[in-house]
Amino acid sequence: MKITDAKVIVCGPGRNFVTLKVTTEEGLYGLGDATLNGRELSVASYLKDHLIPCLIGRDARNIEDTWQYFYKGAYWRRGPVTMTAIAAIDTALWDILGKSVNRPLYQLLGGASREGVLCYGHASGETAEETLAALGDYLKQGYKAVRLQSGVPGLPKTYGVGRGKDHYEPAEKGLPPEATWNTEAYLRSAPELFKKAREKYGWDVHLLHDVHHRLTPIEAARLGKDLEPYRLFWMEDPVPAELQEGFRLIRRHTTTPIAVGEVFNTIFDCQQLIQEQLIDYIRSTVVHAGGITHLRKIASLAEMYHVRTGCHGATDLSPVAMGAALHFGLSVHNFGIQEYMRHSKETEKVFPHAYSFKDGYLHPGEKPGLGVDLDEALAAKYPYERAYLPVNRKLDGTLHSW
Ligand code: CS2
Ligand code: MG
Predict the structure, then answer these.
(1) Is the pLDDT of residue 163 over 90?
(2) Is 400 a catalytic residue?
């Protein structure tokens, strides 16, 4: 099953995406998401200029060897651009394998371990009241788990709020927008939001929150303690996670579950967090952590330490990544939850897919491989336009994690 062609399709239906399409001598093709929000063209070039010349002629069935070839073969290892490029190749090869035996991918990963993939939506609003109204909408749609993000009093805008009811798109065309941040105002307002949510909607819905890398460990410990009465499903990215041991301090002070990992790209970024049980959910994804092959290895390590998966699923991960995540999530034993930030209508049209949502659960469908396609003619109608994620500054102008 020789690979005879591989091409990179860059398009912008609602937001920018990079997709790899690999074709074999039998005419089978597989897709891989290669989107890295704000740095899309770096991955496109890494694939086009460096990896694809070495991919042509390889046997598409040798997925593990191809992974090792591009990981070890680069000499310069790890990093989001490298691992997203490798992920795209890996995902495309798994897609081809499923198509070659006419089976949905989850059946090649060990079959279904559950009926459906529990997912969470994103309720947000400028105020707590707006956010709670949005939460009510998600409950009406049948969601069992909802992330709450609200504006911070005194700040013009903040992460996770805005851009439409059903989905949130942080990247903006032009140069990076500048946001402002006030930790003290945030630490006062966030617990209030969840207190009101529990008072209004009770305990039958899982509530999640994304701190988005913005606190110090002691501030995160304080937030975790303040949130304990509201029993969150998780507090996400409480601190920047380069210092894995920093989570020991948070763990000493609070039982609020912790989720980390959407910015990780290899098992080494989370090894200590998992082995010391400093986190409860690992959010690494198919598209940014080296593909299905590597994500399975991360999940296996996590399983040993009671850590469950909670894969990232924002709008900047294409339906190709979502499809792959759902096959993985349906099968992996220590599954936790899958993020489901709905894509725009334009995105859905360019990437027709077999996955579906019902009563708070997603299912990848039964189509061979990933069950996701790319309409290249339609994609060509949505050209790429450079866009950046915001940068964030404290009130005194100090640059801060966004
Ligand atoms: C967020 C993302 O979904 C999440 O948990 O952290 O929206 C993140 O900000 C974007 O994926 C960045 O591109
Ligand atoms: Mg996040």
Answers:
(1) no
(2) no
